[in-house]
Amino acid sequence: MGPTQRRQPPNVPAIGTVRRLQGLAAQAFPDDWVAARLRWPRARVRNLRAITHPQNYEVRRDVAAAVRALADAVGRLCGPDANAARDARSRGWVPLRAWVGEIDNPAVVVPPGLVTPARGGGDIDLAEVALLRGYGLTLDEIAAKLAVQRDSITRAQARANGRKAAQANTRYPDDQVVAAVRRVLAGEPRQAVAAELGISKPHLDAVVAGRFRPELLAQATRPVGGETPEALAEHHCAAAAQRAAEIAAARRGGLARVRKPRYSDDVLVAAVRRVLAGESYRAVAADSGVSRTHLSGLVHGRRRPDLLEQAKQPPTAEAPQEGSAA
User: Fold this and answer.
1) In DSSP terms, which residues pair with 11 in a beta bridge?
2) How crowded is residue 186: how many other Cβ atoms within 10 Å of its Cβ?
């Protein structure tokens, strides 16, 4: 190991891990669900999440990485257990997105998504009101946090609802939007879903991200038909992992291209038969045009074992043609 290379410490601060576990609970993911995904005992999840001063503790690096990967996969989804979300709210825990990228920063005590500067009665941000409502705050608590009157919020909501109602006849039916969101969460491309259902892609993007009509996103994440909440959550996690893998592949230069085979199977089988008969690799490779490395992999069964089995079988003799001498 060179002087400039240092081995990473085995432990990392626990504050990000604890906040992520608390955020999963605030988003209605119960202990047994999280423990099953992490392959941990349930008590381990509860004990880690209940640490009151995580800035004074450390966890193993692989533990922090496993919790981070799970939180990234389901960070924009709602879990199947509303009781877990209510219990998290009573303990003061907040959803993952409330931290706005500061979840690992011990200097940030209050989540940035819940911090609102005082206002003197300007325009009310209804998106911020909806976000705070999603965190479980009452309308009076939201009014105090935004430094506005409660009636001002209700009037702004009424005006917005009136505009939505006026546009309802020219927009998209709720069931159609919910069906589109479900298909996107299942991993289908947004462009294809929007084109097939006749919904604009920006509209679909806004609903999936929760910026517009968050109740439709919540409806799309509920169980459908005979699906259990566990199966639905598993489906969403798999879809999120698949999307993450696709993004990683795109960053590495796109999906792998299908490469054409360099040698035909007949040439390879004939070359392997000659080597098995005792001829040297060098002579067979020179005559057949197959590289020695490729030929060695075939003979030892490391590459295309089906060709090795075919080469070990005796070649079939061709049947004599009609009219030929016996």
Assistant:
1) 60
2) 14
Assign 59 to helix, strand or coil: strand
- Tell me the per-residue pLDDT of 192-232, one tens digit each, with 9 for 90 and over: 788 777 788 888 888 888 778 788 888 887 765 545 555 55
Nearest CA among 164, 122, 174 for reference residue 146? 122
Residue matched to tokens 């003197």: 120
What one-letter code names the amino acid at 167? Q
pTM attached to this predicted model:
0.39
What is the rounded CA–CA span in Å between residue 298 and residue 308?
A: 6
Let me know: does 232 contact 186? Beta carbons within 8 Å.
no
Task: Kindly state the DSSP code that residue 170 receives in the 8-state scheme.
Answer: G
Residue reference for tokens 């940035």? 112
Mean pLDDT, residues 133-158 taken together: 75
Give the integer Cα–Cα distance in Å for 117 and 266.
Answer: 75
Q: How far apart are CA 310 and CA 10, in angstroms?
A: 50
